[in-house]
Structures are given as structure tokens and as C-alpha cells.
Amino acid sequence: MELLYQVWLGAPVWMWLSFLAIVVLLLAFDLGVLHKDDQVIGVSESLKLSAMYIAAGLAFGLWVWHAFGDEKAMHFYTGFLIEKSLSLDNIFVISLIFATLAVPPIYQHRVLFWGIIGVVVMRGIMIGAGAALVASYYWVLYIFGAILVLTGIKMFFASDDPDQVRDSAVLKWLKSHLRMTDGLRGHAFLVREENPAKPGSKLLYATPLFLALCMVEVTDLIFAVDSVPAIFAITSDPFIVYTSNIFAVLGLRALYFALAALIERFAYLKYSLAAVLVFIGSKIFLGDFVFGGKVPASLSLAVTVSLIAVGIAYSLWRTRDGQGGHAA
């Protein structure tokens, strides 16, 4: 019993187990109850499901507030908001993956659901490694800060490339190294089919759905290179970093079906996200070399909320008549 109260990676073991139990229950309810059979998820259902995940994340933040105090709760909510906002860019790429590989809407939720399993594992490995580095070498935070500032500047001047998935080196490598079926096989990722070179025997083949799953995982890994340092720039507490990250990503999969068709309405949000990355990256240096201490968590949250709110409002205003929806 004492083991449950021992602190491991910033929190008692029982809190880690409770968090993982919540994640498992949410995913089991999502796939095992709401989406037991393959179906197309409409905008209304997507928004309701997303609201459920967001409510769960906000409620968990209140638990963090009760258990650790207001500062860590502010860090949790700031990380949650930043990850959720950065993930909107992820939605654009995921929609391109499904379009390029011709994945029907009825199977898209299945790809995204199993994709989240990989996200939970990959983010855990990355955050665990990051926490170990920061604990041993504080100067790693300066590298994270520099990465965020440079990424923000790059995002500000970058333009969306609709052919980025089709021209992806990863996709080309997968196609050349995997034994592929000539089309979908229902909702299966892998199937056994006849070996044309040896009648009577069967070989394992990957379907286009498996390709889509691999590309979604690779996309999340690339986005994690930005989002994970962003949260470490707010707090080095691995429990806060991981839980805020995962709760934000859980809701993204649900929100995808509502926003994929409306993504151009948020065409100018990327400029706000770029500003958020520059601010979060800069505050590491400002806190240590200018203010002589950490930037208050409440100020970080207020600036982040303000920047994102301005970006959303401006995007919706500029695209209100279906015009101006293409940011450079």
C-alpha cells in the first residue's frame, strides 16, 4: 500500500494510476460503447464527443488544483490550451492523409482511435526522456526555448502545401517496403492473402488503412517535437506535462470530424500560434536573465489565451463571407 503513495515522476503512484484509468475508461467508452461499429461521425456527434473530452480535461485540472495548488493547475491549463491549439495544425495534415490515401469517412475514426494509442506511448517516452534531461541538465530548457522561438518564426512565414503528404519521403518508403493490398479490406489494417508465387500459402499484407495509421503516427511525432518542448517551457513537472498533453490530444481526435471541413475558417490562427511559441520560448530566457525568476503562471496563461482568442476571432472575421481564407 505504501508504494501507491510514493512519488514517481512528480506525483504519487496512485495519481498516475488514476490518470491512466481515466484515459482507458474514456477510450473504452468511445470505441466500445459509442462507436462499436464502423460509422460516419457527423459534426453534431463530433462536437458532443469533443465536449466530453474537454470537460474531462478541465475537471482533471481542478483535481490538480486541489492536489497541488493553483500554480500547477495554471501550468496544466496553459499546457492543455497550447497543445489543443497547436493540434489544429495537425488536423489539416490528417485531412490531407485521408484524402491522399482515399480513406472513406466511415473508417477514419478507427484510424484516429488506434492512432491515439500510439500517441499515449510515444508522448510518454518523449516526455520521460525530456524530464530526465531537464532534471540532469537545466540548460536543456534553453535549447527547448530556442527551438520554440525558431519554430514560431518559421511557422509565421511558412505556407501550407497540399501536396506534402503525396510527396512525403515516409509515405514513399512505406509503399516501397511494405507488401500492399490493391485496395481496402474493410476496416482491417493487416490481412493474410494468397501468395501469388506459391499457391496454397498466404502472406501478410498491409492495407491503405495501415498506411494511413502509420502516417498519422509519424505526423503526431513531428508535431510532438514542437508541442512537448512548449509544455516543458511552462513547467518541468513530468506529471503536468504528460497529463495536459494527453488530455488535449484525446479531444483532438473527436474534434477532427467537426473541424476538418471548416479548417480554412481558421486560416490565420497559425500566426497566433507562432506568436504563442515565440512567447513561450522567450519566457525561459526572460525569466532567468531579465526578471530574475520565473514568469508567473497566471501571466503565461493570460497571454496564451489572449493570443489564441485574437487569432480565432480574426480568422473567423476574415473568412466570414468565404473570402480571405488562404493565409500565406
Short description:
The protein is mostly helical.
Annotation keywords:
single chain; 328 residues; mainly alpha; two-stranded antiparallel sheet; two-stranded antiparallel ribbon; 11 helices
Describe the protein.
α5 packs antiparallel against α9 (238-259), α6 (140-157) packs antiparallel against α10 (269-290) and α10 packs antiparallel against α11 (297-318). β3 and β4 form a beta hairpin. It contains eleven helices and four strands, in the order αββααααααββαααα. The radius of gyration is 21 Å and the shape is globular. The protein has a two-stranded antiparallel ribbon. It is mainly alpha-helical.
Question: How are the SSEs placed, and which strands pair?
Answer:
Layout: H1 2-5, E1 7-8, E2 11-12, H2 13-34, H3 43-68, H4 70-100, H5 105-136, H6 140-157, H7 169-177, E3 190-194, E4 202-206, H8 208-232, H9 238-259, H10 269-290, H11 297-318
Helix pairs in contact: 3-4, 3-9, 4-8, 4-9, 4-11, 5-8, 5-9, 6-8, 6-10, 10-11
